[in-house]
Design goal:
Blueprint (H helix, E strand, L loop, with lengths): L11 E4 L2 H11 L3 E5 L7 E6 L2 E7 L2 H5 L6 E5 L3 H10 L10 E2 L4 E7 L5 E7 L1
């Protein structure tokens, strides 16, 4: 029997307002909508940019009040400087965001989406 091979992951991020989240990911972060369970008022949708696919799922207000831990994604990125300039031009950054060089051999910067899900974009040195 051939050994199983894991080759992709599609994380599901919790959101309160999926239309606002879709607008943010499409218009600010440059993703495209891959699918949605309902074209007018979706509760589950997928987004793609390059080889990355992220899913969004509506959670009720109680979920966010319960003190859940926000999701944290690390996204491998080519030409990180270009992505930083793109996001800067679209006013994605809140506060002082810079590309940092880490002790573990990466260049990276991090942002939060509208629902406090963390997105770290990085490339290896």
């Amino acid at each position: 029997m051939e050994k199983a091979h894991l080759h992709q992951i599609h994380p599901v991020l919790p959101v309160q307002n999926i239309l606002a989240a879709l607008f943010f990911y499409v218009n600010k972060l440059g993703f495209e909508i891959a699918f949605a369970d309902d074209p007018k008022m979706p509760t589950y949708a997928g987004l793609r940019r390059g080889d990355v696919e992220i899913h969004l799922q509506v959670h009720n207000e109680d979920f966010f009040k319960s003190g859940h831990v926000a999701s944290q994604l690390r996204i491998v990125t080519q030409n990180i400087e270009s992505l930083y300039i793109e996001f800067e031009a679209k006013q994605v950054f809140q506060g002082q965001i810079q590309i940092n060089q880490t002790d573990w051999g990466t260049k990276e910067f991090a942002i939060y989406d509208l629902d406090k899900n963390g997105l770290t974009f990085y490339s290896n040195l």
